[in-house]
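Look over what follows to help learners.
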Amino acid sequence: MNVDFISALEEIEKEKGIPKCIIIDALESALISSYKKNFGSSQNVVVEIDNNTGDVKVFAIKSIVENDDLEDELLQMSIESAKKIDPKLSVGDSIRIEVTPKDFGRIAAQTAKQVVIQRIKDAERDVIFEEFINRENEIITGQVQRISKNNVYIDLGKIEGILPPAEQIPGEIYNQGDRLKLLISEVKKTTKGPQIILSRASASLVKRLFEIEVPEIVQGIVEIYSIAREAGSRTKIAVFSKSEDVDPLGACVGFKGTRVKAIVDELNGEKIDIVIWSKNIDDFIANSLSPSKVLKVFSNEKEKSALVIVPDHQLSLAIGKEGQNARLAAKLTGWKIDIKSESQYKSINGDDVSES
């Protein structure tokens, strides 16, 4: 190896962002293995590469022992021999003896090529990992590349992400070439490089989509309190405003519904209920059951449970298909919600809601 090799490493450092010293360290380790394989596996050696000239030297490290204790000349040196090299040495010290073979430069050149290629791959993987680990829970746009064993593989540019069945929207069809917005759910470091787990089903995806579409959320004027989602079917999102001048519902819906429509379109028609969060739990629970009208809420703070009374004709709307509306409201508020119609309440309690 020579100065040209060092220059090449400097170019790699500029283009790939891989420090020259990292490649040299990896190469030195690889050359130790090559030396031991070709010239003596039992020796304790170090390899040093000159960072300026590219010259490679191999040094055997030997322990200095008493003359009578010399047992292995590959690993040890007698104090008598050591003193001839450096009179300051004493028993217990270590000494470096250059043992660079004549044709070691050829071996070094071959090894260097393999190490550089592998190190570039490793470094690129590390760079990608560091980039994506800092982007967990962010939205990314990708293109469907292929589908295998129900997993959808997404081209993210520098790397391929995976959308596993559990993170797919039920009923959503994925075709090669489709462009999708996805949540970076998890980034794993594996022996084959970074693994990017993506999600279309996460509630956080809806949150991030609102952050993209609603400037007031990014500005901190409107905040998202909670989200409850059954992917592919319905999402409830509770919001509130820090400013009396800004209507949180209007901000999220947008002019003529443009903002929420963009999110619904991205989620292929998934219904989205935007409700107002309130410090008053009765009001919040009532709002959470939108689009149903609520007549009365009886809340039990200690048990975090509530009995909700709705008009007779809105009982099925409040409960929702297969209980979905009530289930999402409970998840959104964190309260257990029991829903009764006005007539059911009257038959049990014997009085009207207005009288209670």
